[in-house]
Amino acid sequence: MKLYELGIAEARRLLASGETSAREITEAVIARHRETASTIGAYLTFDEEGALKLADENPKAVPIAVKDLINVEGQPCTCASKILKGYVSPYNATVIANMRAKGFIPAGRVNMDEFAMGSSTENSALGVTRNPYDLERVPGGSSGGSAAAVGGNVSIAALGTDTGGSIRQPASFCNCVGVKPSYGRVSRYGVTAFASSLDQVGPLAKSVEDAAILLGAIAGHDEMDGTTPREDVPDYLAALEGATLKGRKIGIVKEYSSMAGLDPEVKRITDEAIAKCAAAGAEIVEVSLPHAEYAMAVYYIIAPAEASANLARFDGVRFGHRSERAEDVYTLYTRSRAEGFGPEVKRRIIMGTYVLSSGYYDAYYGRAQKVRTLIRRDFEEAFGKVDAILTPCAPTPAFRLGELQDPLTMYLNDLFTIPSSLAGVCASSVPAGFTHETPERKALPVGVQFICGSFEEAKLLNISKAFEETMK
Ligand code: GLN
Q1: pLDDT by residue (tens digit) across 351-368?
Q2: Given the CA of residue 348, which atom of ligand 1 is nearest to it?
């Protein structure tokens, strides 16, 4: 086995026994990154010297790829946007400080959709990332670089962020385990904000065990993020012991059963996943999420509204790109933003500004907040009856680069992931099989989503691990 193929748990065993070192693993990852830069293209930048220096200082540490919106002191943080090209972070995000204290080092910055807006990484202004299972296809997004790096063995594991599905959908497309923690489980300090009431950092990894280890390393209270509770973080690795589906109540969503637009192979794999849970002793229970059908509409009001406020700080004055065609302070703002932001980011800022504008605020933003509450209550009610909900992760496997031209079709990728994001609960994406190969389509990985209640990551990981075992 090549060192870059290792997962976190295996790497730690080899590091503990002295069979390898952080430098050797980091060197292997760097060599693999160079070899795949023009094919997979997972990374935007890789400070090789910096990573090796950290490895020498921490010879037992495991290198982790970092999505290019998480600040690492002294490294670029572009959010895959021209507006932040050349920006260098003055400080570490809390997740980076936490993970370094737990034996991980940041190594390389991976591609993403600009400001995490998108589902294919095609909105990156700075590079193309391809799906390691079929180079003509997208890796998903917005954490597409993270997923491609892990799925293509160009990193041991990676950090991504998820606002409406950005860890889970790319994990599904690239055969990774992804975890979107409950809102508040992980500090957002130092993570460039997209939609502050939804954003969470989480792991993309080669196994549920690895995801549990990395989540445990980054999670917890932070004085710098008031949404993180003070309680201790459970031991997520210990939570995997005796992983079982036996006696678990697994919910399947009534409203999803007759849904149009689901790829038949995704449906088959999801049905098989349900059957595997039942065979492993789970009780399958139908639950209802009556307001889930409004989740897309609600998300595309709330997320752009918050984004339009968060992205106001990029004005050419303090960060990144500054227009050379500015005549006065007004044109400095407008031209820097016009030149610096890509089309999807502009679309979101325009939508967000519109729904927040006086006269429309109550009709759109206020109404969306009310429906969000109803969606959260749907989940609370469902979790009164079941331990976890099982759904498809994304409606289709990875699509072709350039295949989805219309923004609305792209948005539909997150149909199954957005409701749990709005509810603030935790969810995972776990590999569930491959599509059958056809003349038009190679065999592509497909994941399923498990959803548990708020701060129930220990249960989520235990169930995800038990499901992973049924796949062996
Ligand atoms: N694809 C969704 C969007 O474009 C979700 C992105 C995310 O989770 N960051 O908003």
Answers
A1: 999 999 999 999 999 999
A2: 10
